Give the backbone structure.
Amino acid sequence: MGRGVAYSTIEPAHLLNVPAEGMSAWAGQPDHFAKRFEAHGGDPRGFAQRRFFGRYLGDILDEAVESGCTDVLHHSAIRAEHSNGKWSVKFEDGSVIEAEAIALAIGNQEPEALRAFAGAGDRFISNPWGEEARRAVEDLASNGGDALLVGTGLTMVDLVLSLDSAGHGGRILALSRRGQIPRSHDDFRPAPVEAEEVPHGRVGELWRWLRRRSAEVGWRAAVDSLRPHSHRLWQSLDASEQRRFLRHARPWWDVHRHRIAPEVAATIARLVAEERLEIMAGRILAADRNRDGLEVELRRRGSDAVQLKTFAYAFNCTGPLHSIGHTRDPLLRSLLEGGHAQPDQIGIGLKVDENSRAGERLWALGPLTKGRYWEIIAVPDIRDQAALVAEDIARELSK
Ligand SMILES: Cc1cc2nc3c(=O)[nH]c(=O)nc-3n(C[C@H](O)[C@H](O)[C@H](O)COP(=O)(O)OP(=O)(O)OC[C@H]3O[C@@H](n4cnc5c(N)ncnc54)[C@H](O)[C@@H]3O)c2cc1C
């Protein structure tokens, strides 16, 4: 409980992608996690194991339970309805509870299904964070075979680390349209900017500014200088500019903004140098189950030649669901279909107001609120949002 997809991993090679000094769970106590990491011999500017951070979150939740003001139920909520000023929430086991208010903190949704793999059967792992992915990694490590990772972002990095740690001896092909992979953290001299210095409202102008600024102060300093302004910048774009950002800028933004620990980047570079990992820009055309695994047709970017390759498994590493309308989560579906919540202006999350309210006494946090804030997927952003939501809930319930 409390660990979610990101921190329930038990794989030691899975490190945080934010330095320990940025990972406090508490909005007002920036060094809360760093102190604990330091007490265990870690460097506050270094990158802790994600399972270590999971224990930290688990301990905080345990304290909340011990204090008597929090109950924890091990259930999956499948339906929520609001009537006569009350919420009623139904769980998978059929039980129902009533509530004055709901905060949806359900994290990332499973990746979008990939049409090319519709006939791939159990050799295609559509949820890279689930139990079937763990079993597929074990199978690859014990029985060999090559792995195809569709997507080249942070989820791909996680799977490569898991395969390497498990002793997988086969080759790994990681493929995405542009073949861009997350860049490494490194030291840099910060170069803060005032909001007024940054162009608002147009993605093209912002992009040109970012390139100029990167040439002057280095790309890490330029990208990170936008962090305090990111919510306002995103909100200054209208829906068509936000879509333009998602289509053209996002693949570049993500790999520079959400960086990986230097030791993780070194492992990726080593595997590429040993020719065990290939990163390819290209497209999957089709995939079919055959006797040895999966036969996949793919085309390298810029080439007309179709390549046919066989893999023991393919994993969907395209990242969390992009379109809330495609969610398979029954709770979200019931809220949307019941009219209790609406998709945001570009359909990537829920529509929320400035207090992260998605409906009548209904709040949403984290990745579900990407449409309003965009940069709201990592702990440093979510903890501030959580503090504001907690205050707003207290205010509302004391009315
Ligand atoms: C692999 C991975 C690595 C990451 N690494 C980092 C990192 O190093 N640093 C960082 O800052 N961010 C990282 N992130 C971003 C991550 O999204 C946030 O850090 C944070 O975990 C999000 O917290 P959350 O509480 O919103 O969602 P989650 O941590 O995903 O928690 C959601 C919880 O809701 C539960 N849930 C979902 N649906 C239901 C339901 N219907 N009924 C009951 N319970 C439900 C889930 O079981 C889970 O416990 C990573 C994300 C991923 C996927």
Observations:
- The longest helix spans residues 239-257.
- The CA atoms of residues 213 and 222 lie 6 Å apart.
